[in-house]
Specification:
- The protein has 153 residues and is an all-alpha fold.
- It has one domain (7-151).
- The chain has helices at 17-24, 36-63, 83-91, 95-111, 113-120, 126-136, 145-151.
- The protein is elongated.
Length: 153
């Protein structure tokens, strides 16, 4: 783990385990006022990264081959019909919430990989992801690098 003596050094850490570890060791009540915004932006990047990972796992559940084999790692090229029910049961979500999240995860990970990459990198937040997903839904250019590049700057 990296020890962060200077809050501004958080800006150099990419979202992931290292940044999460550094943030976990910081007590916001002890951070100087002038460093609070740097802490906030680092925490926001990490939160976006974790939200993207959650959708990534949901997308994997959506394409996991139904099986009783413990070690199976098989995925389909399309979502399975009842994946939202599995997510719903695991997370105690409503049917509507599970359906919505499964649809977003599928679209983001499999149809909008560059938007997903920007979310995973912490460069965009969930609200932006939702707007881009709605805007690019069904677009023939949704997978094109120029489309995602212009949206994810």
């Amino acid at each position: 783990m990296v020890v962060v003596d200077d809050i501004s050094a958080l800006a150099d850490l990419p979202p992931g385990p290292e940044l999460a570890g550094a943030l976990a060791r910081i007590d916001p009540t002890c951070v100087p006022n002038n460093d609070l915004l740097a802490l906030l932006t680092a925490q926001f990047r990490q939160a976006n990264h974790e939200a993207a990972r959650l959708l990534g796992v949901i997308a994997e559940i959506g394409r996991a081959t139904p099986t009783f084999a413990d070690g199976a790692v098989d995925r389909l090229d399309r979502p399975v019909p009842h994946a939202a029910d599995e997510v719903r049961a695991a997370l105690a979500w409503s049917r509507r919430a599970a359906d919505r999240e499964c649809d977003l995860a599928e679209q983001l990970v499999h149809d909008l990989p560059r938007v997903y990459a920007a979310f995973l990198a912490g460069d965009i937040d969930r609200s932006t992801v939702r707007v881009l997903a709605d805007h690019l839904a069904g677009s023939p250019t949704s997978r094109s690098p120029s489309s995602a590049r212009s949206c994810c700057r």
